[in-house]
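quick q for whoever's on today - can somebody do inverse folding on this one?? i tried earlier but teh output was garbage lol. tokens:
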């Protein structure tokens, strides 16, 4: 008779532990972004001081991630669209050999700066373990938005709006188009 109660107690305890872990791993939006350093594959250096007053989109990706591959051109296009508004995009490849990444980029070229794990502390700070992950830092250095998993165009634009970047693109209806008048 005691065995079923032990199983129930174990189940409840496990549920409480998982709930506590998820609470602490929740979205960090609104918090000051951690201090970071990054060097792109072209040698450009980035840190909190160098990006001050800019909006930053960190894209954590891998060569084997199909969602990352599918969204790469979208991220590149958004980087071009918002470059004049102060957006910097850093595509951070996570935990892959340099040669694998370089070979991949020959076959799948990117227009945004690429950062390798060995050249940054970003992947560890944002606990990048599933991909893609997007983090937006606002002009004041605060985390404006975070997305774990594919975001799509709407999701990326929503994240950028949280950091104060709006599109002037007449092809993009934005959230107002979905609202009844």
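ok took a stab at it. sequence:
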């Amino acid at each position: 008779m005691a065995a079923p109660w032990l199983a129930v107690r174990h189940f409840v305890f496990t549920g409480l532990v998982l709930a506590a872990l998820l609470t602490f791993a929740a979205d960090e939006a609104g918090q000051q972004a951690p201090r970071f350093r990054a060097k792109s594959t072209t040698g450009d250096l980035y840190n909190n001081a160098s990006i001050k007053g800019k909006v930053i989109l960190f894209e954590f990706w891998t060569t084997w991630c199909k969602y990352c591959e599918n969204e790469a051109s979208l991220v590149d296009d958004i980087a071009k669209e918002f470059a004049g508004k102060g957006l910097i995009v850093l595509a951070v490849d996570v935990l892959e050999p340099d040669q694998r990444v370089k070979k991949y980029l020959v076959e799948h070229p990117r227009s945004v700066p690429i950062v390798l794990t060995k050249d940054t502390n970003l992947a560890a700070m944002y606990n990048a373990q599933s991909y893609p992950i997007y983090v937006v830092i606002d002009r004041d250095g605060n985390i404006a938005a975070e997305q774990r998993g594919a975001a799509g165009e709407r999701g990326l634009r929503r994240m950028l709006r949280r950091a104060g970047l709006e599109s002037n693109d007449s092809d993009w209806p934005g959230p107002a188009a979905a609202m009844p008048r």
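fwiw DSSP finds five helices and seven strands in the chain. also Confidence is low (pLDDT under 50) at residues 10-26, 170-181. so keep that in mind when u check it
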